[in-house]
Amino acid sequence: MSDIPPPPSSPAGGNPYGQQPQQPQQPYGQQPQQPYGQQPQQPYGQQPYGQPAQPYGQPAPQAYANPGSQYGGYQPVQAQGTNTLAIISLVLAFVVSLGAVITGHIALGQIKRTGEGGRGLALAGLIIGYAGIAFGLIYIVILIIIGIAGASSAAYYDY
What we know:
Blueprint: H1 67-70, H2 84-92, H3 97-114, H4 119-153
Organism: Schumannella luteola
Region (Disordered): 1-67
Keywords: Membrane, Transmembrane, Transmembrane helix
């Protein structure tokens, strides 16, 4: 918002540009006709009759409603919800890592296409899911190594 100062007044107190504005004469008590949908012009810094003066620096209240709101004009865009598969991906990351990875990739594709929320949840499900798969594979490899080492070094004792 910018505050525009009023035009400088002339020494004579009239129009500073030396011209007098032409105003059509109106019968007493009638307001001048305005084009349809326009607000009547108020002199700079003056309040319409019947409204209290506003403190300096605060905007005056609007006397007229937005014309589009009366007939269902533009409505604000409602925020999309969180993608369901993103939530499922995060939950599955702690139970079935492979399911978390699969649903996480599907969720990211849907989020990119539809603009839904939940990208962070899908990424978290993917990361935890991949980490779970990696730890599971390392665990299986360690078990196999221990099994082979135990079988090869085990001596059969006959009693």
